[in-house]
Each structure stands twice: as structure tokens, then as C-alpha cells.
Amino acid sequence: MMATTHALFGMALGAVALFVAPEYATVAIAAGGVGGLFPDLDLAGDHRKDLHFPVYYSLVATPAFALAVHAPSSVTVAAAVFLASAALHSASDALGGGLGLRPWEATSDRAVYDHFNARWVAPRRWIRYDGAPEDLLVAAAFAVPGVLYAERLQVVVLALLGASTVYALLRKRLVDFGESLADRLPAGLAAYVPVE
Ligand SMILES: [Zn+2]
Questions:
Q1: How far apart are CA 29 and CA 9, in angstroms?
Q2: 195 found inside a domain
């Protein structure tokens, strides 16, 4: 799934605060968005391993939620929603495609690394690859609560949805472009062009 799909899901998760603690809704929605993006910051490293913790984020999110319920503040609410969003991002990556330059070819059996069991979880491919039409559809669905209710963050939700749409439209061409760019660059520079 696209990082933006995870961010929009995190924001929708944060929007639940509108019903239980509306005074913290904005901070919860923002924290959900950042927590949804966070694991994919490992894109430049060992992707879906370095910052993806499907088990550990969940283990830490549970007491963080308990703390936010018993001692609600901007900090405790933000921490709880951030961790829950990062946990759901890491776990739901198993429902997408595998690693690799062209995940739609379904050649990889690695979706996300489970540090707890020290093994790669296989991709389910419910969403075949990041930027697939079904990925954009899911992103659009998760954007609905933010568009309707996230007053101050509405523009962020719309920007994420816009970025998702452009990415989904260009997804396959981006790979070809990256490859032709890598072919034309001097070897030293080409090492910095992400091809996976
Ligand atoms: Zn991810």
C-alpha cells in the first residue's frame, strides 16, 4: 500500500477521537497521519524491516492507549494514536504486495518483517501493489472522515489524496523512468537512484 494510504488510514483512526474526546481530535488526527507515514521512512534502508514492527508497535500501543484513557493529554493521546497507526501500517503491509521493483509481477514472498518471530511475512496481495487502483480506492475511502470532519487538517487530507492519485496514475511509468535515469547517470550517481 502507498504510504499515503497508511497516512489516511491513520487520520481516519484519529478521527474516532471526535466521538470520544473531541478536544483532542485535531492532535489525534495529526498523530495518526504521521504514525501512518512513519514506518515507510525506512525506504532508503532495509525497507519494511528497519521501521516496520507489526508485533512490537502493537505491544507498546496497548499500554499507551490505556495511559491516554486514564490520563488524557495532547501528549498521551498523540503517542497512543501514533503507535496504533504505525502498528496497523506494519501489520497491514502483509495484505499488500511483496518487495521488489515491480511488485505487480508478484515475484517476492516478502511483505513485511516480523522481528518478534524473526521471519518475513508473505504478501497476501489483497492490494496487489502500492499504487494499484484498489489501493487508491482504499485511500479515497479512508479520506472521507478527514474531508468531512478534520476541520483544520482537511487540506492535508486532500493533499494526501491528490498525491495518491498522481502516484497511482504514474506508478508503473515511474519504474521505467527510474531505470532509464539509472542507465544514463554515471555509476557513482546511479547508486543513489532508488530502484527498489
Ligand atoms: Zn510500509
A1: 10
A2: no
Distance between Cα 37 and ligand 1 center (Å): 8
- State in Å: Cα 8 to ligand 1 middle: 13
What's the pLDDT tens digit per position in 96-131?
999 999 999 999 999 999 999 999 999 999 999 999
- For residue 196, being part of any structural domain is answered with no
Give me the number of domains the chain comprises.
1
Per-residue b/e over 56-76, b at no fewer than 16 CB within 10 Å?
A: bbbebbeebbebbeeebeeeb
Rounded distance from Cα 163 to ligand 1 centre (Å): 17
Q: Convert 31-50 to b/e letters by CB count within 10 Å (16 or more is b).
A: bbbbbbbbbbeeeeeebbbe
Against a cut of 0.85, is the pTM above it?
Answer: yes
